[in-house]
Specification:
Layout: H1 2-8, E1 13-17, E2 21-30, E3 33-42, E4 48-49, H2 52-61
Antiparallel strand pairs: 1-2, 2-3, 3-4
């Protein structure tokens, strides 16, 4: 895609791939102005957005393929699925659910 834009449109674009979205940067020379534009594509459906926040909100609430998205990648839910990986410190003097003293 980058080569196509360079060859056919004489534009240089940069595409960066992330787990949840693609970031596309390109320079636009129009009327002597040299602006750098950036937009984001949803990794799952390809919809275009102007900010990362808008992509994230779309993926959490509206994406037609949101069932395929792991909520932990969006920063939702517990970061450690296995309680053995990150156990909470036991409070001294309290009994556990089985009625045994710590």
């Amino acid at each position: 895609m980058e080569n196509h834009y360079k060859k056919e449109h004489d534009q240089q674009i940069h595409i960066h791939s992330f787990p949840l979205y693609y970031e596309i940067n390109y320079k636009m020379n129009k009327n002597g102005s040299r602006a750098r534009l950036k937009f984001f594509l949803c990794f799952y459906c390809g919809k275009e957005f102007t900010t990362k926040f808008n992509v994230r909100r779309h993926q959490m609430l509206y994406c037609i393929r949101k069932d395929e998205i792991d909520p932990r990648q969006l920063g939702l839910g517990k970061m450690h699925a296995d309680p053995e990986q990150n156990p909470l410190p036991a409070k001294t003097g309290e009994s556990d659910p089985l009625g045994q003293k710590n």
